[in-house]
Amino acid sequence: MTVQQHIDPALPRTAAMPSARQPIADDKDMLRAARDLTKDIAEARAGIYWPDMLGSALVGYGALAGAILTQSLPLAIALGLVSALALYRALLFIHEISHLHRDALPGFRMAWNALVGVPMLTPSFMYEGVHTLHHKRTQYGTVEDPEYLPLALMKPWTLPLFVLIALLAPVALLFRFAVLVPLGAILPPVRQLVWQRFSSLSINPEFRRRPPEGELRPRVFWQELGGSLWAITLVASIFVLGWRPLLIALAVVSLTAVLNQLRTLVAHLWENDGEAMTVTAQYLDSVNVPPPGMIAEIWAPVGLRYHALHHLLPSMPYHSLPEAHRRLAAQLGDGSTFHGANHPGMASLVLRIAKSTMRPHG
Question: Has this prediction a pTM greater than 0.90?
Answer without folding.
Answer: yes
